[in-house]
Design brief:
five-stranded antiparallel beta sheet, 2 domains, globular, TATA-Binding Protein, alpha+beta
Length: about 160
């Protein structure tokens, strides 16, 4: 009497596990990357220069500049132009970490400038709403909104040609 019940239980368990795995895979494929990507109207070099100028104009410290293509070349690897700018403002960083200390994992801020295989230039950076969710902070928090607006303005200045 117990053997048929065990068999039924095992069949149902396997079916539910497969259904849950399938749903989890579907959900994972729909998770946003948390990245904002902007096309640049400028060359790669000019976009990097513009981004540095936009940061300086707002008194945001450029902490480091990583030329991934140059680093790849040092080990005989070819990589399209790719530069990571790491920047921040300690006062704003402290405000973010007061909201949740774990935000320090995502500081300082970063922006990646790169050229794709078709010669298009892009700037990518972390979406503050995504980071807010990652650190259990409401995405409509005033500090999150301020930083999000600043990142949008900085990257727009770096990528958008004005007449």
């Amino acid at each position: 009497m117990y053997k048929p019940l065990i068999v039924v239980f095992l069949i149902v368990s396997v079916s539910l596990t497969n259904a849950c795995s399938s749903n989890a895979d579907d959900a994972n494929s729909k998770i946003e990357t948390g990245l904002i990507k902007k096309s640049s109207d400028f060359s790669y070099d000019q976009t990097v220069t513009n981004l540095e100028a936009a940061l300086a104009a707002r008194n945001i410290t450029l902490m480091s500049k990583v030329d991934h293509a140059a680093n790849a070349a040092m080990v005989d690897k070819a990589l399209r132009p790719t530069t990571l700018l790491i920047f921040g403002n300690p006062a704003i960083g402290a405000e973010l970490m007061k909201l949740n200390q774990s935000f320090g994992l995502d500081l300082p801020m970063k922006a990646l400038v790169y050229e794709d295989d078709e010669g298009n230039v892009w700037v990518q950076y972390n979406d503050m709403a995504f980071l807010a969710g990652r650190h259990d902070i409401p995405s409509d928090n005033e500090v999150i909104s301020r930083v999000s607006d600043a990142l949008d303005a900085i990257t727009t200045d770096a990528t958008l040609a004005r007449e």
